[in-house]
Write a structure and sequence with these properties.
The protein has 11 helices and 11 strands. By secondary structure, it is an alpha+beta fold.
Length: about 350
């Protein structure tokens, strides 16, 4: 398009009457080029526009004519300016590309992709970042295979930014390290609480947050799914309750004795108690963070996760999360979430593979 613009303006200026001057329109060619191309291409188009203006000047009058000499000078200055702006835009795009690469690398380390099949379970997971340029935030999930089953955690760190990413990495590291060693679920959650609370008292952690007292906590749901029994054990630390999909009906797994979020238990003295729920072959369990249920439409209505989950046709975990993710984004006014959202779907099969 810029080359065509130069050609049209040049021919039109040569054929135009003496009192008509189309040369200023040539400045649009390098300006448009700077919006999508790099500085080298922009400079070449600018040089071509200056050459075209010089040809017009020679054909119509003279290159030293005051009117044409001023047009050529102005076109050179404009071309230099837009070339500089193209350089700044290209450098900014490279920085964004590097940031995306770093974010993706951090995501692979902190939030590792869950396997699609573990024992008698089929698993799928999805992470939807609220910021367009971000790939990871304070939401977290993980799964660890043990001798008798599989343990899961899904959580949400209070706050945003690098501090939230650091807290998520701390909790996930503790979970992956202790899930094999702690015999029962309450002992595992107590260990996680000790890890989070000790980080709250770490002077280095406080200093890393601009010297202000750290007021972080993490909501989490921790589950143990045995291989041989149609049941799951759940401890909920202030997190939205998991949803169980069975034969088209959805029920929330509300525990009788919920625990406070991790990092706050020390102030309440609460003990951790696991509650059992039936989890039979064919059942699907959905773990999620509050970014899902707090997504709003144009009228301010929250996303009705349970109703939408029940309305979906029967499918595997991967297809289920794909449909939910599309429906969730379609529910929002702009197609973007106001907060990070994570979902994990777990389906029990008839037998271990």
């Amino acid at each position: 398009m810029p080359l065509g613009l130069i050609a049209v303006v040049t021919v039109g200026d040569i054929l135009a009457p003496a009192e008509v001057h189309l040369g200023p329109f040539l400045a649009a060619a390098p300006a448009v080029t700077a919006s999508f191309a790099g500085p080298r291409t922009t400079a070449c188009v600018g040089a071509l526009a200056v050459l075209a203006q010089s040809v017009v000047a020679v054909v119509r009058t003279s290159l030293t004519d005051l009117n044409h000499s001023l047009q050529v000078t102005a076109l050179i200055l404009i071309s230099l300016c837009v070339t500089f702006f193209a350089h700044l835009r290209e450098r900014h795009e490279k920085q964004l590309t590097q940031l995306r690469a770093v974010a993706e690398a951090v995501q692979q380390v902190v939030i590792r992709p869950l396997p699609r099949r573990v024992g008698p379970l089929r698993i799928a997971s999805v992470y939807l970042a609220a910021e367009a340029e971000a790939q990871i935030g304070g939401d977290l999930f993980a799964a660890v295979r043990t001798a008798h089953g599989t343990r899961f955690i899904v959580g949400d760190v209070r706050g945003k930014g690098l501090a939230a990413v650091g807290d998520a990495a701390l909790l996930l590291g503790a979970f992956r390290a202790a899930a094999h060693r702690q015999a029962d679920l309450p002992s595992l959650v107590a260990y996680l609480e000790g890890t989070v609370s000790s980080d709250l008292d770490d002077p280095g952690a406080v200093a890393s947050r601009t010297g202000a007292p750290k007021e972080a906590f993490i909501t989490a749901a921790v589950l143990d799914v045995p291989d041989t029994a149609p049941v799951l054990h759940l401890i909920n630390c202030g997190h939205p309750p998991p949803l169980l999909l069975r034969e088209g009906r959805v029920s929330a797994l509300e525990v009788r004795e919920p625990a406070p979020p991790l990092g706050l238990t020390a102030f309440t003295g609460s003990a951790f108690t696991a509650q059992d729920f039936p989890f039979r072959p064919g059942d699907t369990l959905l773990l999620y963070t509050d970014g899902v249920i707090e997504a709003r439409d144009g009228a301010g209505t929250f996303y009705p996760l349970a109703q939408r989950l029940a309305a979906l046709p029967p499918s595997g975990p991967q297809r289920l999360l794909h449909r939910l993710g599309e429906d969730l984004l379609a529910h929002t006014l702009t197609g973007r979430l106001g907060d990070d959202a994570a979902m994990v779907a777990i389906q029990r099969e008839d037998r271990v593979r």
